[in-house]
Write a structure and sequence with these properties.
By secondary structure, the chain is an alpha/beta fold. The protein has eight helices and five strands; from the N terminus they run αααβααβαβααββ. It has a five-stranded mixed beta sheet. Strand 4 (about 215-220) and strand 5 (about 225) form a beta hairpin. Helix 4 (about 135-145) runs parallel beside helix 6. The chain is globular and about 45 Å long.
């Protein structure tokens, strides 16, 4: 799916001054939102303890599949070029669901025909603090130990401490959760440069293959922006 950045689109949606920083978009990132609200006067990235992490904004989970029992059962002829956010067909093998399972007739434990996951079960959230790489990798390893069908139940990632230097870890995280639909950044305020950086990141990490359903990023105020 075409998850490339859209600078021309962003330029229409955001003030031009926010885009004209003179620095690469992935370097001009806003500082985290301090716990308890307010803004930070420091340009350096704060490191929060677990007790001080700002809570994620309240937001309803994505509705997966739109009630279509055969969602992600058949292949989309457009493949990664498909731009329909509500497409009910699969675009990468990573998100493909087993047709027989969707129809209630497959009980193979090692099925090679796709994911065995019910749409109603794609409702889990995983939280990762990227400012603590050791703990973040522990979360990653714990989930890698689960079956792909269990991991496919994760629909939202809540990420603290996002920075461009963490992109390798993010690549590994996205590869583990094939049906993740959105990323929430509770400690990052909405910013044009940050949005462009994420669009760049999505393309670099080839999320069209790893996490083809990821379509939105949510900032600390609960506002969502499309990534493609």
């Amino acid at each position: 799916r075409p998850l490339a950045p859209r600078p021309h689109r962003l330029a229409q949606q955001w003030p031009a001054a926010a885009m004209a920083t003179g620095e690469p978009s992935w370097l001009v990132l806003p500082p985290p939102v301090p716990a308890g609200g307010g803004s930070s006067s420091s340009s350096s990235c704060c490191v929060f303890s677990a007790a001080k992490l700002p809570p994620p904004p309240q937001r309803q989970l994505p509705a997966v599949g739109g009630g279509n029992a055969e969602w992600n059962v058949y292949r989309c002829s457009e493949g990664k070029r498909c731009e329909a956010a509500d497409c009910n067909l699969w675009h990468s093998d990573s998100e493909r669901r087993c047709k027989d399972f969707a129809r209630g007739s497959c009980a193979k434990r090692d099925c090679k025909e796709g994911l065995h996951v019910a749409l109603a079960d794609v409702n889990q959230i995983v939280t990762v603090d990227l400012d603590k790489p050791i703990e973040a990798k522990a979360v990653l390893q714990a989930n890698k130990g689960k079956s792909v069908n269990e991991r496919a139940r994760v629909v939202r990632l809540v990420l603290y401490g996002f920075a461009w230097v963490r992109r390798q870890l993010l690549r590994d995280i996205f590869e583990v959760f094939p049906l993740v639909h959105e990323v929430m950044l509770p400690d990052r305020t909405r910013d044009a440069n940050l949005l462009v950086a994420w669009c760049d990141l999505i393309e670099e990490l080839d999320c069209a293959k790893r996490a083809p359903r990821m379509r939105e990023i949510i900032f600390s105020d609960g506002h969502a922006e499309a990534l493609w």
